[in-house]
ATP-binding cassette domain-containing protein
Amino acid sequence: MLTLNHINKTFNPGTVNERAALKDISLHLEPGDFVTIIGSNGAGKSTLFNMISGNFQTDSGSIILDDIDLTFMKEHKRAKYIGRLFQDPLKGTAPSMTIEENLALAYMRTAGRKFGFGISKQEKELFREKLAKLDLGLEDRMKTKVGLLSGGQRQAVTLMMSTLVTPKVLLLDEHTAALDPGTADKVLAITQEVVKKDHITTMMITHNIQSALDLGNRTIMMDDGRIILDIKGKEREGMTVQDLLERFKKESHKVLDNDRILLTK
Ligand SMILES: Nc1ncnc2c1ncn2[C@@H]1O[C@H](COP(=O)(O)OP(=O)(O)OP(=O)(O)O)[C@@H](O)[C@H]1O
């Protein structure tokens, strides 16, 4: 499905600010895999997503999605295959445009639809149908400007935008971290439902170790640009937060030092 072969990325090479953010990362995802990712501060988690979505190009290695070589493909071309949500609910939507217009933009980006002639009745129906599934009443507020929605409603709309046309891969970069706990749980539940229904291959960065173990079928731990643990199947079943922290310590010879993880405990 998604295969990363020996990915390396160094920022500011040859300068005093040189930083090797990814060091020989190799990873293979099966269709429908839901991988949760946790790691220390600056471990390279967001950089990994930036490589997959084409925000930056890799220094070496390759990224293959099914039979498509993404390695040198421009970011806007990859957007057709890859959905991405960020921590900040303001990212990824146009706040001064309505819900309907935002969905139309997403549709244009992912389905290649041209909107010179406005939004058709069928498209409005499709958007309404999709929004109704969120169970937030947004299907009756399609003319509301996205900037007027709460953080949770906005993340739900962004999720809808990213999955309007089912992506091959969905990247969730701490997408519930800025929400209050109740709203975060609701958005996580919606995420799980959407991912399950459309069998979307998903990677989710989280600072909540319990969520990392509860959601998905596989957990990756990163430290200093490397994947140091990749846990799935029987080994993952019944694993506790403490077990995972101990495994991290054993592999990295240090205690997990992620400020946000520590604040969550
Ligand atoms: N655009 C950039 N220019 C220079 N250095 C960068 C850039 N992006 C990331 N880095 C550096 O690469 C390393 C990995 O950063 P990254 O944001 O991927 O880590 P992370 O695991 O997501 O961290 P955190 O959990 O703290 O957000 C860090 O040292 C960071 O400072």
